[in-house]
Write a structure and sequence with these properties.
Elements (H helix, E strand, L loop, with lengths): L1 H47 L10 H26 L11 H18 L4 H18 L6 H29 L6 H36 L1
Protein name: DUF2306 domain-containing protein
Keywords: Membrane, Transmembrane, Transmembrane helix
């Protein structure tokens, strides 16, 4: 009788531990992906080799920007899925093809229609839309996850872009080329990541509680 009472408690404790681990790694991995992909690699890949640019990009600049965005997506997807693997069974590269196709397209759509900072905002919205679709089947309330996920990434993109613009006019515009780039993208990426992870983590916690119950 004692064993019968203990097993459910142990099982619940294990699920709680897995949930806690997922939420921690979800936040940490997304922040790391943004820092590595955007704050560190993007200025180097997109601007160091081909130089600064105005709205019109040369072909080498266009290629290197795409290389940078694709690199960011690979890092983000791998780290995101590693976090989800603490609770769900899924492949490390799950959904990668969607990210590689639609996120660069959204980035350039924003850039060539409304210009900066809508390239950044559109990029994060695209990530949110894809995550709404890819992660939803894992959760008990997929529709609720979908719209909250998209909204979270939208707010993250807006917050990151606003922080970057504020820093630019506060003094970063007078800094040197690469110093300005690293400063801008560090502020943009960290602010965006902290914003959307804090929001999506709450949604994930609610959804995972539903599974446990």
């Amino acid at each position: 009788m004692k064993n019968e009472m203990t097993l459910p408690v142990d099982g619940q404790a294990l699920r709680d531990h897995d949930t806690s681990l997922l939420l921690k790694t979800w936040t940490l991995n997304h922040i790391c992906a943004n820092v590595l992909g955007l704050a560190i690699l993007h200025p180097f890949l997109a601007h160091y080799f081909t130089g600064t640019h105005d709205k019109a990009l040369t072909m080498p600049q266009l290629i290197m920007h795409n290389v940078s965005v694709v690199t960011f997506m690979v890092i983000l997807v791998v780290l995101q899925n590693r976090a989800l693997q603490s609770r769900f069974s899924l492949g490390t590269f799950r959904g990668l093809s969607y990210f590689l196709l639609f996120v660069p397209a959204a980035f350039w759509l924003g850039y060539y229609t409304l210009y900066i900072p809508f390239d950044i905002i559109f990029m994060y919205v695209a990530i949110g839309i894809i995550n709404a679709r890819v992660i939803a089947p894992l959760l008990p309330k997929p529709r609720q996850w979908a719209w909250k996920c998209i909204l979270s990434f939208l707010l993250g993109g807006i917050a990151g872009a606003a922080c970057g613009i504020a820093a630019y006019f506060a003094g970063l515009k007078d800094a040197g080329g690469m110093v300005r780039d690293y400063g801008m993208w560090s502020l943009i990426s960290v602010t965006a990541a902290v914003t959307y992870t804090s929001l999506t983590k709450r949604v994930l916690r609610q959804q995972l509680t539903e599974i446990c119950n």
